[in-house]
Amino acid sequence: MTELATAPNHRSRLRLVDVVSQALLGLTSRKLRTALTALGISIGIASLISIQGITEANQAEARAEIDALGSDFLFITAGTGITEEAELLPYAPDMLETHLDALEYVAALYPVDARARKNELIPEVQTGGVTVSAITSTGLDLLEPVNGSVAFGRFHDATSVEVPGVVLGSLAAERLGIRHLVGHPTINISGHQFAVIGVLNEFETLNTDLNRTAIVGLSVAQELFDTPDTPSAIYAQVQPEQLDEARDLIPAQANPAAPGEVAVSRPTEALEIREVIDETFARILQALALIVLAVGGIGIANIMVISVIERRGEIGLRRSLGATRKHIASQFVIESTMLSLLGGVLGVVIGVGIVLGYAQYKSFAAVIPWYWLSVGVAAAFALGAIAGLYPAWRASRLEPAEAVRPAA
Amino acid sequence: MSWRVTEVPAVLELRGVTKSYDGDPPIEVLKGIDLTIEEGELVAIVGPSGSGKSTLLNMMGALDRPTSGDVLIDGAVVNGLGDSSLSGVRGRRLGFVFQQFHLLAGLTATENVATGLLYHGSSARERKAQAREALTRVGLGHRLDQKPGKLSGGERQRVAIARALLGDPAIVLADEPTGNLDSTTTGEIVELFLELNQQGSTIVMITHDPDLARSMPRVVEILDGEIRLDQVATS
Questions:
Q1: For A144-148, A156-160, B70-74, B188-192, which range has the lowest pLDDT when averaged over its residues?
Q2: Chain A residue with minimal CA distance to B82?
Q3: Which of A127, A259, A274, B146 could bond B150 through an S-S bridge, CB–CB 3.0 to 4.6 Å?
Q4: Which pLDDT band, with edges at 50, 70 and 90, does B1 fall under?
Q5: What pLDDT does A254 receive?
Q6: pLDDT of residue A408
Q7: Is the pLDDT reported for residue A3 higher than 60?
């Protein structure tokens, strides 16, 4: 039986470019399905990138603010008085400096029990939430520790704190209708005329209380409103290395009766805490984005399984045209990978768009999270390949004789 | 150098081919088929539904393996080959035409025909050139860039036939190629097969239509998994 020789080796060959073109064909012949399936991945990747980008932009901004504030200021407040009497001693500002070498007094704010109005014709109850505080001639550097600046006019000086002059926070100025200093505007504080000498810029993140405050001189306030000389807040400067020591000693000096009530903080601490919270929050959101991504991957696997069932005839045809099991499997794995990559690239574009839009809106510097960009694309790639494995295996296991028959 | 008379092997040969499917008792669809197709033949395989003719075509087309017996293509046994070699034989030596055409909806007629050479590893340019030629051969030279959706049933089947002809296969196997077509179109397709056969193509066509089978030079009648009649028309 000489003719029972083995068959000459007829080998199937598929060019690499055709492997890709056949996979693309599968995607382009079902455009709506392709778009909707890719969308799941897009949303996941876009969330991943935009969350990171926004968090990084916020942190960069917070860090810039911390740098601007400096970390050597201390903020001493009376506390809430829940357990004991919350009060800072009248002579606390002077005493702190005398008793603690490490400390340098900067300024103190004294609460004034008075109502600010635009003029006498407006009832006293309609103060619009404007509070009145006082400073002394030794606390003229108040704006330094609170990182404040003057919008127009000027801040108090040694002369203005001795006369009825007032500096307004941005919100207070708005409520009282002060938009400029033309014509020397005045306001009425509990029946007394005060000349407005300046308005501050808005405090955006820290010390926002000062936005609604009208600041007058303490000696004037004592004369007109019987303001006690117990400060609500003291601002001090301390050498960074003596910070801990100062923190331990301050409460007993500022309120010996209730040292536990005295709160000593650094203004930058709030920002640092917020940064940590932002970071944690971003991680939680990103975990959610990863779940969205995984769901997107399952969506791809699902649609690919359906595709294999629907395209039985196509698979049979390809097998009759000489496609090997490997050719069929690779077609579906690559189709799935390209589908996912399409979603990934779209997600990157959307994510970067959101990051840029946010930076524009907040007038922050945009931070493109390159690391997460590459993580996103790599994740989409891997997800697509993995999602395609099972459908591809099923497609390759289809018997050609079965596949070419119409479905029963 | 010596002159050697070599017997040209048959294009396709089945030797005692049986096929059973699992079941209790096992279902024996083919019960020992011996069939030889020589080069240049046009053969109709006719039989009613369930006679085993589709299973027979699967055996001839190496789409499935026999339970016992041998399938020889160009004189070489193929049923023992692995997936890769068997796929190669299908792609290079066999052409298929199916009842439901199996055209890819997203591709033009030319692109569909060109897929006939996709797994030969030839370049896209070469595939398209050959596809255009084949389409002209089946009378669709004017429909090269139409997608299947815009073609009539008869035209679609012509596209499928052109695809089967690509790569110059040893044999074209057509499984109920007119099953989805009206009688006029059926006549045209049969006409085309006769014409292609005259140009040298070896064609095996499966049909359940005895009238259609009678218009072919050779008719193999199959019933209950056995060949009942193998008749060459005398004309």
A1: A144-148
A2: A324
A3: B146
A4: very low
A5: 78
A6: 52
A7: no
Distance CA B159, CA B139 (A): 9
pLDDT tens digits for range A259-285: 777 888 877 777 778 788 888 888 898
Q: Identity (one letter) of the amino acid at B168?
A: D
How far apart CA A366 and CA A76 sit, in angstroms, is 36
Chain A hits for B124, Cβ within 8 Å: 17-18, 21
- Confidence category of residue A4, pLDDT binned at 50, 70, 90: very low
Structural domains of chain B, with CATH: 12-102+153-232 (3.40.50.300)
Query: Could you tell me which chain B residue has the CA closest to the CA of A321?
Result: B91
Token digits of residue A157: 């000086």
Q: Which residue of A has its CA nearest to B66?
A: A401
By CB neighbour count within 10 A (0-12 exposed, 13-18 middle, 19+ buried), where does B97 fall? buried
- Helix, strand and coil content of chain B, in percent to the nearest 5, comes to 35, 25, 40
Mutation site for A-interface testing, chosen from B8, B54, B58, B104 by largest number of A Cβ within 10 Å: B104
Residues present in chain B in total: 235
- Neighbouring residues of A99: CB distance < 8 A, sequence distance ≥ 6: A249, A253
CB within 8 Å: A10 and B89: yes
Does position A82 have pLDDT exceeding 70, yes or no? no
Between CA A41 and CA A43 the distance in angstroms is 5
Q: Give me the pLDDT at residue A38, please.
A: 94
ipTM of the complex: 0.93
Q: Are A194 and A153 in contact (CB under 8 A)?
A: no
pLDDT band at A196 (very low <50, low <70, confident <90, very high): very high
Largest CA distance in chain B: 59
**Which of B61, B104, B121 is closest, CB to CB, to A320?**
B61
